Amino acid sequence: MIPIAGTPVLTAAEMRAAEDTAIAAGAGVDTLMQRAGAGVADAVRRLAGVNEVLVLCGPGNNGGDGYVAAARLHAAGRAVRVAATGEPRSPAAIAARGLWTGAVEPLATTAPAPVVVDALFGTGLSRALDGEVAAALARLVAAASLAIAVDVPSGVSTDDGAVLGEVPVMHVTLALGAAKPAHLLQPAASRCGAVRLLAIGVDTRSEAHVLSHPDLPAPAVDAHKFTRGMVAVVRGRMAGAAQLAATAAMHAGAGYVELLGPTIPGAPHALVRRRCDDAALADPRIGTVLIGPGLGRDDEARTLLDRVLATAHPLVVDGDALHLITPQRLRARGGTMILTPHAGEFAALFGAPDVDKLTAARAAATQSGATVVFKGPDTVIATPDGRAILADAASSWLSTAGSGDVLAGAIAAMLAGGRAPIDAAAAGVWLHAAAARQLGPAFVADDLATALAGARA
User: Fold this and answer.
1) Disulfide engineering: 206 pairs with which of 8, 45, 365, 453, CB 3.0-4.6 Å?
2) 314-359 pLDDT tens trace
């Protein structure tokens, strides 16, 4: 079992293509099923202890994986039972069923067990489970002390993270070959529990990956404040939002942060205050300009945004600024830009998406020419060239006012420090989530901004 951080993410079609390539190279469907089943059995042995295991098998290849796992668990001397929705249908699943020499109980009437393994339906499901099947699965998972899903929990949509009907929450999901969007996109991700990867000998290269721990080294021995990165934060109508973002940039590691706009009483002494004029914006030492937190949406805000867009500096565009711009104007401006919309801001800028979040983020990045951080309980980072990073679930306590301003400041610091846009966005998202985990419950954004330093350490 391998943690999924940093590993490729494949859609159902991409996974089928990878398997087809392996089969064409001589692996065979049966071989892949044996590898998957063996991996599941090994994981269950580690997790289940001496408890009885109930394996639930569906009619397809996911069920075939279950039969292989059950046979291997039995051969290892473990107490294991099998229940199924009916007879297997695919040739590989039929062959796998032949490996199981015990009884196969009807799913609807089978008795619970302390450990239940869901191998009913895997990737590619497009409709809700049959009512009797869904009721049996819910009953058995509720009675188990440990529920394990094979590849994806039965009843979730692999590619868009949708939940197709009522789907119980698993404790562990064993991703076969590669992580899938459903492991990271909500609401499906909330049904997966801890996701662990089982390698099955398939080449799973992809342009999409799971967010991983970034490299956050200490400054070089000869570093100074400007080599660490200079961030200029443009103040708008809500001064507190800009100050939160500036504070976050300082604690995320920027060497020099200035607030462009009227002075804010009580701001940190290390925060440099300057008028937001042409001279300030022309400073060649600026590594990133951050605009949007608390900017406002009036004529004054539009003027500030126009002046920032006229510069050649790398930009982080957040909050209100996302309501005052168009994708076409951003693309025409060009240069290095990171956009950090939540769902409402995304809809205002790009229109309400009618596709899954990963596809929507990629399309937005292509349309705008910018790296897009589509925030939320399932954050997706996408670049104009099609690369993407999906973040696993962060603390739900991030649902507090100002947390987005803190994220924008952290990303700005990473960008000013010289990282590529996708790496700066990923490092900021990771650091933001790490700080939230360290703080625990009921924090406020002010705490989050200062906690970035501890999370980085």
Assistant:
1) 8
2) 999 999 999 999 999 999 999 999 999 999 999 999 999 999 999 9
Helix, strand, coil tally for the chain in percent (to 5): 40, 15, 45
pLDDT score recorded for residue 253: 96
User: In this structure, are 166 and 290 located in the same domain?
Assistant: no
Q: Which amino acid is at 215?
A: D
Share of the chain above pLDDT 70, in %: 100
In a domain, 225, yes or no: no
- Domain around 137: 2-209
CATH of the domain at 205: 3.40.50.10260
108's tokens: 């609807």
- One domain for residues 269 and 378: yes
- Using CA atoms in the order 5, 10, 15, 21, what is the torsion angle rounded to 10 degrees? -90
**Please, which residues have CB within 8 angstroms of residue 305's CB and are 6 or more apart in sequence?**
291, 295, 321, 324, 325
Counted domains in the chain: 2
Any idea which residue has 């590669």 for tokens?
A: 178
pLDDT score of 95 more than 80:
yes
Q: Are residues 233 and 245 in contact, defined by beta-carbon separation less than 8 angstroms?
A: yes
pLDDT given at position 4: 97
Between CA 268 and CA 265 the distance in angstroms is 9
Measured from the Cβ of residue 295, the count of other Cβ atoms closer than 10 Å reads 29
CA-wise closest residue to 66 among 150, 139, 157: 150
240 and 105 belong to one structural domain: no
Q: What is the CB neighbour count within 10 angstroms for residue 392? A: 19
Q: Which residue has the tokens 């404040």?
A: 225
